[in-house]
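pinging the channel bc i need a second pair of eyes. not urgent but kinda urgent?? the chain im working w is below, pasted from the shared doc
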Amino acid sequence: MSTQSVNEIDLASSAFWRLPDVERDAAFAVLRSEPAPRYFPGGSKVEWGLPSGQGFHALVSHADVVEATRRPEDFQSGQGAVSVMDLPVEFNEAFSSLLSMDGERHRRVRRIVTRAFAPRTLDKLSGTIDQVAAELVTAAVRRGSGDFVAEVAAPLPLRIICSMTGVPPSEYEFVFSRSSRILGAFDPEYAAGQPDVATNILTAGADLIQLIDDLVKQRETDPRDDLATTLIQAEIDGERLTRAEVASFFILLLVAGNETTRHAISNGLLLLQDNPAQRDVLLADYDRYGGTAAEEIVRLTSPTVWMRRTVSRDCELNGRPFAEGDRMLLFYWSANRDEKVFTDPTRFDVTRDPNPHVGYGAGGPHHCLGAFLARIELTAVFRELLRQAPGLELAGEPERLASSFVNGYKRIGYQV
């Protein structure tokens, strides 16, 4: 493998994101060795949402990602957290809700739903999550072979988040297909039949909004013990969420709440296949290492590769100046492999502790709302896999999702 020089690395090119992990890893190591975050101006055409002239500074060190995250007044999300390209505020909020809000508005909306994702609340769900994980793995073992993503990794978080929000089982496949199109919009498979990426995202989002509107109308006359009812009834200082705010938050829950955990589970399976000694450690004492293994999977695979921030005023970040309006991409994938923080950072170690990864964000107001839920789901599914199918093997080459934003797989063949 030849390592790219710093001038050859182009994070703004879709070609970079088609490179094997080992080559991307080497490129990020080169960037971390640089004295300052490198600026990528963008190409001459639109690539993964980046038109010419809308470049970004790449924050690749753990220290820079943590510092930017914990200074939301200087490094803001309101101009878009999941798109490098500047988009209308309405578009950002419609498709990323809390992720693209700042200040008091962000705090107001987040307070309404925080209780539903608190550890005390989610502990009550753990039995249900264990049951769903057991059912899915049992069915996979009975089949003997199939697609791990479709049969285990995807349905576990999908069923849990849909159950929490009030979406009925008849709509699970609908939610799965639309969320895949939104986060996989740059993958040719998910873009099939759409003229461009923006149209693909907009039409998938519009379909979800219609589903949400129908659900909200039902809950207005038939309230139940679910997040749909909580969202339409909740008040902060006498105000309720608007219909648009309810819809946008639902999209965030349904998309982020199942997509990122799906990819963490898929990546976790591949890590265990590639590291049989670590699998043996878990088999020997899962109760002791199941939790640390879940954290290590998220650290090493970083299902969300980056998030964007925009500089709100001239300021410094770890001694380096930035100007108002500068775009920054916080590369969690690179920060989680920073040699200054993690010993032997590319090694999968299910006993790693402490593990100060930034796979769920790095603290601050935008720390992942569903982090505790994801931990429960990951721990449950791998407990069942190791209990019921310790000899599970891969069948064929896994099919990767074409994306710079999400580190995931579309299909992983297996046999028991």
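so The chain has 16 helices and 14 strands. and Residues 44-51 have pLDDT under 50 and may be disordered. — does that match what u expected or am i reading it wrong
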